[in-house]
Design brief:
Layout: H1 10-20, E1 39-41, E2 55-61, H2 66-81, E3 86-92, H3 100-111, H4 115-128, H5 136-145, H6 150-157, H7 160-175, E4 183-186, E5 190-192, H8 198-213
Parallel strand pairs: 2-3
Antiparallel strand pairs: 1-5, 2-4, 4-5
Helix pairs in contact: 1-7, 2-4, 2-8, 3-5, 3-6, 3-7, 5-6
């Protein structure tokens, strides 16, 4: 299995946030992937990220994760390949104090409507061009270079609303038993587990989507 970032301080960070706020197979054919290996079924009751859409594919990621940067082009290709009515959503993982600014940056970018044009650029700037992008100020500088009002970015990123969203999403990430990034969760029901490449991660995701569309 390719290495993913995992961090043990999730509960500690959650406490800090509290203080801070405020294919479907043919009949008879064997399934290509097995429960407990390539994917796991999460404990019921299943909890989706939102109620919109028929089937929901969520990538738990961080701008601080080089593996997420490597997976990002494949995730973008997956988004374009998903059937009608299926949507890929992004949820940033604030697994450490070092990753918290990246999560805040994503929420601000989403609120300001610039994720689509900045998502891949931020990975490229940090890991390909090696810009120093770690702190809120450095992230604000990046978004300012992309035409975003710097002061407004910082205001939204550090707002009580962003902190509340961080807490809410972190609790859901924990419910999904996510301990590393990138991780894919389908419909709040399945988590892609032991895979050996990003191509396999995408293939398992597509298979789980087809299962859900078929009502399996």
């Amino acid at each position: 299995m390719f290495k993913r970032f995992a961090h043990p301080r999730v509960l500690t960070l959650l406490a800090g946030l509290l203080l801070a706020s405020a294919c479907t197979a043919q009949p008879g054919a064997p399934a290509p992937y097995t429960e407990g290996n390539e994917y796991v079924t999460l404990p019921a009751p299943y909890q989706r990220y939102s109620s919109a859409g028929k089937v929901e594919v969520v990538e738990v990621f961080s701008y601080g994760c080089i593996h997420c940067a490597q997976f990002a082009p494949a995730a973008e290709a997956l988004r374009k390949q998903l059937p009608a009515g299926v949507e890929l959503k992004l949820v940033p993982a604030p697994f450490s104090a070092e990753w918290l600014p990246y999560a805040r940056a994503y929420y601000a970018a989403k609120q300001l409507g610039v994720v689509e044009r900045t998502h891949l650029k931020l990975f490229d700037a940090k890991f390909a061009q090696h810009y120093p992008i770690s702190s809120m100020d450095e992230l604000a500088d990046f978004y300012a270079r992309e035409g975003v009002d710097r002061a407004e970015f910082l205001r939204v990123a550090t707002s009580p609303e962003a902190t509340a969203k961080l807490k809410e999403d972190l609790a859901l990430i924990q419910k999904w038993q996510v301990d590393g990034t990138p991780t894919i969760v389908v419909n709040g029901k399945y988590r892609v587990a032991t895979v050996h490449s990003f191509d396999e991660m995408v293939a398992v995701t597509q298979w789980l989507v087809k299962r859900e569309l078929a009502g399996k």
